[in-house]
Amino acid sequence: MQLTDLKWTDVAALSRDTPVVIPIAALEQHGRHMPLFTDSLLLGEVIRRTAEQLQNRVLFTPLMWLGNSEHHLDFPGTMTASPRVYLDLLRDMVENFIFHGFRRIVLVNGHGGNIVPAQQALFELRQKHRSRGELLLLSTTYWTLGGKPDQQDKSFVQKRMGHACEWETSMMLRIAPHLVGDLTKVQAVPFGNPFEPASRAWITKDRTEAGHIGDPRSATAEKGELILRTFTADVVALLQRVLKWDGKSWDG
């Protein structure tokens, strides 16, 4: 179900155990060969496919395209909310549905910079509503749920998601090839080891002059379809677990 298609009376009639999915993404630079709206376009496609499979069992809000993208601000066109403002925005969006009585709310993310704010926003809300044992607040990023497309096709160069990389570029070649630039003009940008397993604070210019991270040159539409199918299946599986949750247990 799409929230935008419903009347308020339709929403009022829903079971409060209906999972509510809030997709969150970004509008930010994606190198010289990819459009600024890449994250939102890709997450939108994953959500579209997910909604088709779950039909009327899950309520989907419109995608929130503004993200936490301050680390990309050196590249013109990037739009961002400051980190604390973004965290509060996420809190407010989720709390709208808590106020309306919904008990199962899931942030599905499509931008790496949103991961920490999304987790923190839900952590803070759980403390605020600490007496609500029936409240399930989840945050996930669609490429972190376990699917490994590179193990299904050995022609993949990358083993993980980057930025405007083989994986993202492949998905864009699948859904909007007219927005992808000339891949013969890009070079690989290695992931490197930024003092791992420690977590290093960084801005994008620390890592890449062109704006992308990874190797877009080997991207194909066929790989993109495989990636989209894999990650959509992961999101569907998570939401099926949310649907089956008994409303009280720690395990899901």
Q: Can you give keywords for this protein?
A:
single chain, 252 residues, alpha/beta, Rossmann fold, 4-stranded parallel beta sheet, 7 helices, 4 strands, 8% strand
Provide structural commentary:
This protein has 252 residues and is α/β, with parallel strands linked by helices. Helix 5 packs across helix 7. The protein is 36% helix and 8% strand. The protein has a 4-stranded parallel β-sheet with strand order 2-1-3-4, with helices on both faces. Helix 2 links the parallel strand 1 and strand 2.
Rounded radius of gyration (Å): 18 Å
What general outline do the C-alpha atoms trace? globular
CATH superfamily: Creatininase
Instruction: Please report the total strand number as a whole number.
Output: 4
Biggest pleated-sheet summary: 4 strands, parallel
**What structural class should be given to the helix and strand makeup?**
alpha/beta
Report the average pLDDT across residues.
Answer: 97
Number of helices: 7
List unreliable stretches of 5+ residues.
Answer: none
What is the terminal separation in angstroms? 23 Å
Helix content: 25-40%
Q: What's the SSE pattern?
A: HEHEHEHEHHH
What is the strand content? 5-15%
What's the CATH architecture? 3-Layer(aba) Sandwich
Please state how the strands of the largest beta sheet are arranged side by side: 2-1-3-4
Q: How many structurally independent domains?
A: 1
CATH topology: Rossmann fold
CATH secondary-structure class: Alpha Beta
